[in-house]
Amino acid sequence: MAKKWTNENFPGVLHFVTGNVFDRRKIFSNEQNCIEFLDELQSLRRDRECKLIAFVLMLEHFHFALNPRDGDIKTATGILKSLSAKRLVAVAKERTYWNGTANQVWQESFMAQRLWSGWMIRQKIDYIHANPVRAGLVNRTEDYRWSSFNSIYRGNTDPLLQVDTDWWWPGDEVKAAEELRRRGQAALPD
Question: With 0-12 CB in 10 A as exposed, 13-18 as middle and 19+ as buried, what is 20?
């Protein structure tokens, strides 16, 4: 049986990613911190050729569904965490992220899950958007500012909240089939 979570790169596949703030500090209760992170997420989408189809920024973690064109989810997420950390440290008051020896914004690792079917994609998008309601931050998904819900379902044009309407790149099916052959698998799992 395959692992549920893996940070293994796999070209042509959409990934559901979760990252946590170091010590689960609620740094995203600060609006400026949210803006800094989401601006960096949009830069990743635009400048590093990543298809972003849904996201939510919670008080102490994030979730997103992303397909980097090159399939390298480790590098894409690492770049996002590194560049957003630099921005967050730069706008911080005092030594907010100091852990005794250095600034640390994020936990060292992150979790990524490959999404193989339309059902899995829909389930993760719904999970992402329902997260603020489950956490008790808002009563309705559309009331939470720091997610892609209003961009997807309400046509919000805020540049910080934009997502792609499709998640695949031309040739993704070929890349995924080649990777499966390389791994000795016959077809995409259900």
Answer: middle
Determine the angle formed by the axes of helices 73-91 and 31-47, rounding to 10 degrees. 140
Q: Identify the helix (H) or strand (E) that includes residue 56.
A: strand 50-57
In this structure, the strands spanning 106-115 and 50-57 are: unpaired
Global pTM value: 0.87
Q: Where are the alpha helices (DSSP H) in 53-188?
A: 73-91, 118-134, 149-153, 172-183
User: Quick one: average pLDDT of 155-171?
Assistant: 91
For residue 2, what pLDDT is reported? 44
Residue of 78, 87, 83, 64 whose CA lies nearest to 14: 64
Cβ-contact 147, 126 below 8 angstroms: no
Cα distance between residue 161 and residue 180, in whole Å:
34
